[in-house]
Amino acid sequence: AHxxxxxxxxxxxxxxGDGGAGKxxxxxxxLSAGLQTAGDDYVAVDMxxxxxxxxxxxxxxxxxxGLDRIGGLAARTAHLPENWQxxxxxxxxxxxxxxxxxxxxxxxxxxxRLGQAREPRVVPVAAGEAxxxxxxxxxxxxxxxxxxxxxxxxxLVRQVPCYQLALSTDARANGACLAAVIxxxx
Length: 186
Known about the structure:
alpha+beta; 10 strands; 6 helices; 186 residues; two-stranded antiparallel ribbon
C-alpha cells in the first residue's frame, strides 16, 4: 500500500492518501511525538489475521521544508543528498531511536489533508470516502489486477474506522493529535 503506519506498542493507524497529501510529514510529526512506524511511502498490508502493516523499506523521505518543521531534524540531515524527487532519504533510527518497528497492527485508517488550521482536527469519514481517496494512489499506482486491488482496499476500509486528519501548520500539534488518536483507539 502507498501509505505509512504509525503506532505505539505495536498498534496504530495507517495513513493513506495521494502523493503530497502529507503522509511523510505526518509520519515525522508522529515520530517526534514518540510514536513508531513500520515505514513510509510503501508498506505491505496483510489482512489474513487482523490488519497488519509490515515494513518494506527502512527509509523515510521528506523535502527540506518538511524537515525544517521538525525541531532539529533539518540540521541532523543537512549532510544527506536529495534524491531525484528533491527529497532527503534517511533511516528514522538515526534520529528517533526505537521509532522503527517491523510491523504495526492497524486499528484505523487516517487520511491526512494539508491545511492551514491552528489546531489539527480529526473527523470520521465513511468507508466510501476513504475508498475514493485510495483509488488513485493505491489502485492505479501499484501493479496487479485492479479488481483484486478494489476488493482488497474495500475490505480494508470496511474493517476499521476511517478518519480525515486536517493537518495544522504546527508539526508539534499534529504529532500530539496523532498520539492522542492512537492512544484512544479501542
